[in-house]
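Self-study notes.
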Amino acid sequence: MSSADQLPRVLWRRRLSFLATFALVLGAAAAVTFALPEVYSAETFVLVSATRLPTNDFEATQSNQVLTKTYAELLQTRNVADAVAASLPYRSSGKDVQGAVDIAPVSGTQLIRIGAEGSTGARAQTLANIYARTFVGQSARLGAPSLRTGQVTLAQPAPRPGDPSRPKPKLYLLVGALLAAFAGAGVALLRQRLDQRLEIEPSTTELLGLPILARVPEVRRIAKQVSRTDKGYGGSPTSDAFRLLLVNLSFANHGRQPRSLAVLSAGAGEGKSITAVSIARAALEAGVDAVLVDADLRRPSTATLLGSLRPVEGAGLSSLLVRRQSRPDEDLAVEPLGLLPNVIPSGPLPPNPAALLGAGGLGSLNERLQEAFELVVYDTPPVSVGADASIVAAQCEAAVLVVNASKTRCDALLRTVDQLRRVNVNILGIVVNRSGAEITQYKDYGGWVGEPREQASEGRGQGRRHQRRARTTQPT
C-alpha cells in the first residue's frame, strides 16, 4: 500500500489526535488574531523633478533616477523624523515616527511613496501628510548644493483609510487553519509511528508470519456466559468464533486436531483464560472429550471464571507435579462441572512455579492426559512474566497465541513469538480477541439458537468419559 493510501487511514485511525491538535492550533491562531491591535495605513506620494534641463534622454533618465533615490534616502533621516514629530498634533518622538513610516521610491517613476501607520485612520492620514509637507518644505536646504538641481512637490495627499490594514481576520484564520491541518497531520503521524499497538485491519490475515485463526468480538460478560448453559451464548457470534477456531486448529495442524494445546498471550488481561475455557467448551459441544488444565501457578483464573469450581484438598496441577511417581488415570484431579466436566485446577501455588513445571513431571503428566482425553487445553501465565508459559508450551503438541486488538503491543508480541520459537513451540496461529469485527448471526439461515449442543458430546467422547468416571476416585 502506498504512502498516499496510508495517510487517510492513519488520519482516520488517529482522528482524535488530529482534531484535538487542529482545534488547539486554530484556537490559538484565532486568539492571537483577535488580540492584535488594529492598525490603519495611509500613503502619500511626492514627485521629484530636475530643475536643469538635460542635454539628452540618457542624461535625463540617469538624473531622475539619482535624484529620486537620493531624496528617498533623505526622507528617512532622523532629522526629518524629528521635525515631523514636532509638527504632529499629538505627542510623539522621532524614533516613533521612523518606526511608523515606510518610504520607498516607486520603480520606473519619479515618485516616492510615503506610507504611514497609526492606531486610527485619522492618525495615519495626519502622519503621512505632515511627513510629506515637512520634507517638501525642507528639501530646498537639505544636502549639498548639487541637490538643488532638483525639487520635490506633493503629488498626492493621503486619504483617510476607512478599514484597518491589519489584522486581517479572514486571511489569518485561513493561514491558521492550514497550519492547524499540517500540525494535526504531523501529530497523527507521530503518534502512529510511536504507537506500539497492533494494527489489525479486517483484511489482515496474518501477524508476524502467523495466520489469524479466529477473530473474537468483544462481548460483555463473556466470562459468565461461556461457563454456563446460556441460551444467548449458544447462538452468539462469540461461540461461533470459537467453533471456527476449533475447526481451524485442525487445518493449521496438517489436517489433524492437536492432542494437547497451550493457550498463550504476551501479557496479562488479553483474554487468554477466556479463550482456553471457550476452546474446551467448543470441543465438548463438538463431541471431543477435552480437559482444561489451569497451568497458571502464579495467578490462576480458571476457578474465578467458572465460578462453580470447588477446590478439593490435595487436587490440582501443582499437587500432581509434586507427586512425581506414576499414578493411575483415576487419581487425576478432575472436577465434575456439568458443562465443563473435566477441569484440573492449579492447586496450591508453589513458591517457584517455573522450577516445579520444569522439574520433569509435566511431560509424563501430559502424556497420561493425552491417553485419557482427546484434547488437553492448558491455560498458561503470560509469556512475559517468566519461563512458565514457555515450559508448558514446549511440552504441548501445539499452541495458539491470543492477542488483544486494542491492547497488545507490537514489541511485546515480537518478544513473545521470538521466545516461543527459541524453545521450538509449534505455534499454529493467532486468536484476535476483542477485534470489534461484526459477525453476522445466521440463526435465520439454518443456524441453531438455544441450549448449547451438549448432546453432540454423546458420541465418541462421552463413552470414554463415562468409562473413566466410573472408576474415578476422589484424589487425596
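Second protein, same conventions, sequence then structure:
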Amino acid sequence: MTKVLVVEDDAMIRDRLLKALNFEGYDARGAENGAEGLQAVDEAAPDLVISDILMPDVGGFDFVSVLRSRPETRLVPIIIITALSERLSQREFMELGVDDYLTKPFHIEELLRAVKTQLRKRNWWQTEHRDLREAQQLIFADWRMDVERRTLISARGEERSLTSSEAQLLLAFLRNANRVLDRETLVEMLGRPQSSSNDRSIDVLIGRLRRKIEPDVKRPRIIETIRSGGYIFNGDVKWIAAEATG
C-alpha cells in the first residue's frame, strides 16, 4: 500500500486530509510539525510527502531541506500546501526541490489529483528510465546530469536539484536534441493530461528549467523558443555508462 505522510500543524486540516487519503486507499499518516515528520520518516519511509510551510518548531522549509539532503528521501515526491501565495515563495519551493504546491484554501479533489500525478511520475521514473539510470550521467553544454540522484552539476562543481517534472522535461529534450518539439508533444512525453490550446504550463516549466541551466535566462541558447513551432534543445549530448564514470 502506498504510504503518504501529511505534515500539518492545523489538526482539523490534517485530519481532513488523512481521512480523504485513507478513503482513496492510501496508507496515510500525520505529523504536527517538521520534527514529528522527520521522526515519522525514520519510522516508516513514505512514498510521498504532503507538508505545510508555516509550522512551529521545525517548519516546512527546514523539513523539506532535510529530506532533500538525505540519499534515501531526496527523490520522494513532495507536495507543499501553504497559505503563502507570493511568487518569491513559490520560487523558493521549487529551488528546494518541491515537486508541486497548492495554495490554501484548496479542494480535496485538487490535492488528490496532485498526489496521483506525482506518484505516476515516480513510477514513470522508476520504470521507463532504467536504461538512463544505467547510463548514470548525461553531459550537455556546461552541465552533467546525474540521472539517479536527479541533480545537475556544473563545470565549476555547483550542484542543483531537479524536481521530477524538471527532470522528465530535461530528459525529453536530451533524448531529442536538435529537434523541434511542440507543446503538445512535450505534454504527451511528460504523461500529462491533454491541455487546452491556451494552457501554458509547459512554458512555465521550461522557464523553471532555463533558470537552472541557461547562462543568460533572458537570452536562452540551450533551450530555444521556435516561434509558432515550440522549442528546440541545442547542442550535443554525451551519454556516460555507469562503468565509465569511475
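Instructor comment on the second fold: The chain has two domains: 3-128, 130-244.
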